[in-house]
């Protein structure tokens, strides 16, 4: 029953993202004629501000309560950004197509920020109320024992925590100060911990022979701009994973005292290579399942790159 809880949380987050993402709506429409109604998902990302009741420790606790298990971690020094990734318990021996996407959780190192930026971040993150961890754990235990009502109640608590900010909007001056120091941090200050991207598992789509062909499809058939930072293709066979992404489409967001234009999210694509050439990969564990920090460093810049940068 915990799988049902995880599935409900992920599907709700995915549908919300899918509905709100102009990029994803265009990709969906172009995939349908190819026979792909539900593209396989690789991972999604949730970034939080660091604070007394926010950040990686809280996010990891929430997902651990639903049956996600830590798999690894990395660091993006230019962005003062720590990240961890988690996968479903027992997924190694499941079919890759049956496993829910991994979740990447991240926050920032306060002690590496200048004093004026640290003051702004602490001012807003301190507004966040504690996450209802005890309730989530209790309801997860009830869900694991077969309580369907607990599945619904627990999912509602988790989704409520993951779908926005727990702090007020910053001022335009604060936003620009933070953005000048760290554009990713400024994005999180505005949008909060809502999933900033979902990632499609292109290697599990039989209609594409490789990621380069999928990039051609995105560029020529869907007519979406691609992130060129570090090259359109980040990684390759020797890395175990190749990645690419769209650049964000800007939205006007009203802050505390005015408006700014900032992309709301993007779509990522990955091609995971088999870890062994001995047999055709079928199981989740047959593929490289980790992340490469230097690739993630460039991909996440899609959150604030506009198409004219590409």
From TrEMBL:
One of its GO terms (molecular function) is dioxygenase activity. It holds the Pfam family HGLS. Its cofactor is Fe(2+). Keywords: Dioxygenase, Iron, Oxidoreductase. The keyword Iron applies. InterPro entries: HGLS. Its EC number is 1.13.11.93. Transmembrane segments: none annotated. Belongs to the 2-oxoadipate dioxygenase/decarboxylase family. This is 2-oxoadipate dioxygenase/decarboxylase. It comes from Aquicella siphonis. The lineage of its organism: Bacteria, Pseudomonadati, Pseudomonadota, Gammaproteobacteria, Legionellales.
């Amino acid at each position: 029953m915990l799988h049902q809880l995880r599935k409900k949380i992920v599907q709700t987050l995915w549908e919300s993202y899918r509905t709100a993402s102009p990029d994803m709506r265009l990709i969906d429409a172009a995939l349908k004629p190819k026979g792909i109604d539900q593209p396989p998902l690789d991972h999604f990302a949730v970034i939080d501000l660091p604070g007394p009741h926010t950040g990686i420790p809280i996010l990891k606790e929430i997902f651990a309560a639903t049956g996600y298990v830590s798999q690894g971690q990395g660091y993006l020094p230019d962005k003062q950004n720590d990240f961890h990734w988690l996968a479903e318990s027992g997924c190694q021996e499941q079919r890759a197509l049956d496993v829910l996407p991994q979740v990447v959780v991240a926050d920032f190192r306060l002690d590496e920020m200048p004093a004026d930026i640290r003051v702004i971040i602490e001012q807003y993150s301190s507004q966040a109320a504690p996450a209802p961890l005890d309730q989530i754990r209790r309801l997860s235990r009830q869900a694991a024992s077969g309580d369907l009502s607990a599945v619904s109640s627990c999912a509602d608590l988790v989704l409520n925590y993951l779908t926005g900010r727990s702090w007020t909007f910053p001022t335009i001056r604060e936003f620009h100060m933070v953005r000048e120091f760290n554009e990713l941090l400024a994005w999180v200050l505005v949008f909060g911990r809502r999933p900033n991207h979902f990632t499609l598992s292109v290697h599990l789509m039989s209609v594409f022979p490789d990621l380069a062909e999928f990039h051609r499809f995105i560029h020529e058939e869907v007519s979406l701009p691609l992130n060129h930072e570090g090259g359109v293709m980040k990684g390759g066979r020797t890395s175990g994973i190749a990645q690419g992404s769209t650049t964000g489409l800007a939205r006007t967001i009203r802050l505390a005292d005015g408006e700014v234009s900032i992309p709301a999210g993007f779509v990522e694509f990955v091609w995971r290579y088999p870890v062994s050439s001995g047999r055709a990969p079928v199981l989740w564990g047959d593929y490289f399942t980790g992340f490469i920090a230097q690739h993630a460093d460039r991909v996440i810049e899609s959150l604030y790159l506009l198409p004219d940068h590409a």
